[in-house]
Amino acid sequence: MEEKYLNLVKSAYEIRKMAYTPYSSFNVGAALLCDNGKTYVGCNIENGAYGPSICAERVAFVEAIKNGERGFEAIAIVTGPKDADIYEMGSPCGVCRQFMSEFCDDDFKIIMTKMTKEGELLDSKILTMNEILPSRFKLKDFKSI
Ligand code: THU
Questions:
Q1: Alpha carbon of 88 to those of 53, 124, 126, 136: distances in Å?
Q2: Which domain holds residue 18?
Q3: Whose CA is nearest to atom 14 of ligand 1?
Q4: pLDDT tens digits, residue range 57-86?
């Protein structure tokens, strides 16, 4: 894997430690690489009313968008039960796919990882936006706003 993506995975691994998951104990970290080289990170944050919980991917995007970023290259994701020894590969949920779709081109990369709890990368898979959400809905395709 390219150095810049390895660094992105490291950032996702680190921010995963900040996940707030008293209900699922399933911790997720995400690191988003912008076209300008900057990285924004997010972790999942749960809520006792369940519905308001937010995934790591969307937290990373919200952080980037509110800082003015509009061009994105890739997102790395590290998922797994809080106390697992191995973090198995996980892919973004449907809501996150649609959320990311708003801001991403077809070739935006989703980097999924399998890691040890110490942060060693065991395996990875890279899919594009088009692959994880084909025939996606984009209001922008219909009207200029
Ligand atoms: N979760 C994420 O943060 N990202 C995903 O792509 C899938 C699921 C979170 C939501 C919830 O806090 C926990 O993982 C279990 O579903």
A1: 22, 10, 14, 27
A2: 3-141
A3: 26
A4: 999 999 999 999 999 999 999 999 999 999
